[in-house]
Design goal:
The structure holds two protein chains of two kinds. By secondary structure, chain A is mainly β. Chain A is built from no helices and twelve strands. In chain A, the strands form three sheets. In chain A, strands 2, 5, 6, 10, 11 and 12 form a six-stranded mixed beta sheet that branches. Chain A has a four-stranded antiparallel beta sheet with strand order 3-9-8-7, with no helix packed on it. In chain A, strands 1-4 form a two-stranded antiparallel ribbon. By secondary structure, chain B is mostly beta strands. In chain B, about 0% of the residues lie in helices and about 50% in strands. In chain B, the strands form two sheets. In chain B, strands 2, 4, 5, 6, 9, 10 and 11 form a seven-stranded mixed beta sheet that branches. Chain B has a four-stranded antiparallel beta sheet with strand order 1-3-8-7, with no helix packed on it. In chain B, strand 4 and strand 5 form a beta hairpin. The radius of gyration of chain B is 13 Å and the shape is globular. The termini of chain B are far apart. The chains are: A mainly beta, B mainly beta. At the A-B interface, strand 5, strand 6 and strand 10 of A face strand 5, strand 9 and strand 10 of B.
Chain lengths: ~110, ~110
Amino acid sequence: AQTVTQSQPEMSVQEAETVTLSCTYDTSESDYYLFWYKQPPSRQMILVIRQEAYKQQNATENRFSVNFQKAAKSFSLKISDSQLGDAAMYFCAYTGNAGNMLTFGGGTRLMVKP
Amino acid sequence: DGGITQSPKYLFRKEGQNVTLSCEQNLNHDAMYWYRQDPGQGLRLIYYSQIVNDFQKGDIAEGYSVSREKKESFPLTVTSAQKNPTAFYLCASKVIGPRQPQHFGDGTRLSIL
């Protein structure tokens, strides 16, 4: 079974600074997909970014980028120029090539200090 | 606007009572999911369905039941057999295919009276 681990229960960052959230996963598949979701205090889950395992290029969405290390099974999220609105729970998630289920990590709570 | 609607937002259950959480989507998605989230924790899969009249158990299906009679609707019943139902419940849907992300509703908070 696949597992996803987020080793940082909480992180804090100063507004306008950069922060990196860690995620590791365990799988025996070669093709899979990884996602980062954001859950603000409103509790709605919002897709931040996704990465296909077959792509060597790291995904980027505006201030959000990933560092995908396939051999190390690592998928970290970098948030640049942090804003107060970035404060939320962040969840890393994995799905295999069949794509019918997501496995979530335990989450990292990000606090942004003004 | 297309989206996923969960109702009610808050729900209270008495001991020994079954309650049903509603999830409706107008995104024309084939797959639908139910997750449970406990405080400070990640999401755990209860049930999912990829086609009408078919569904599969997730990691924590015991004490829950679902139906999928229409593509748009995937209600979750929390039965009296679920001894610790207090949690936040999230419904999601997606287009079939691994690259496609799941889209989530706003959730239902269930509490025991």
